[in-house]
Amino acid sequence: MKGKNPFKDKRVRQAFYQAIDIEGIKRTVMRGASNPTALMVAPGVNGFDTNLNKRLAFDTEVAKKLMADAGYPNGFELGMNCPNDRYVNDAEICQAVTANLSRIGVKVNLQAETKGTYFPKLLRGEHSFYLLGWTPSTYDAHNMLNALIRCVDGKGAGTFNYGAYCNPKVDELISKIQSETDKPKRQAMIAEAFKLHADDVGHLPLHQQALAWGVNKKVELTQLADNYMFFKWMSIK
Prior knowledge:
It is a single chain. The chain is of the alpha+beta class. It folds into 2 domains: about 1-20 and about 60-135, Dipeptide-binding Protein, Domain 3 (Dipeptide-binding Protein, domain 3), CATH 3.10.105.10; about 135-235, no CATH class. Helix content is about 40%, strand content about 10%. It has helices spanning about 10-20, 20-30, 60-70, 90-100, 115-125, 140-150, 170-180, 185-200; strands at about 35, 75-85, 105-115, 205-210, 220, 235. A two-stranded antiparallel sheet has the order 1-4.
């Protein structure tokens, strides 16, 4: 996108959020196999807070008003980068989002491509709007907070924060979360960081995709939530 960055205005970010029909995507694109979310981590991750997992309402009219209040009554045009072979129905999700945003005057030039070319573009910053999924390898919210939400410092923090979201108060909390050992106190800090980020509409959360596997009745196995399967936990009857 050239010129002024409209995403610097929270009203635009919120308009995009509320223009996305996530339940429609769940129904028609994901065929019910997704869990719409307001958080950037799933229920199986330490730090997940059910009380904070409440999405902003899907409301096209509210989104239109937000766009007008931000100075974009007729919308604007931007590009969107999306993989077509990385996540479940990834290209179809992006197509649905594109259709949703057209209702508030936003023209999205969607480029869906193989992950082999998609991710190098993200790393080079060649994008305006993009789709990204994340699974914390530590099963802890700090992993996501540090990688996706922390201000980019060039030293490892915010490595995958491609939109360059930055809130010093959130950063301060993330630093404390990293070393806090008192579990209730740490959880309270995680919840506060989540709330500050949500109030900023720092990202546009969509959903957690479901895992779908076909297994022979003769096979017994333990399926982990992170999509890994270990041979040591498999057996054949």
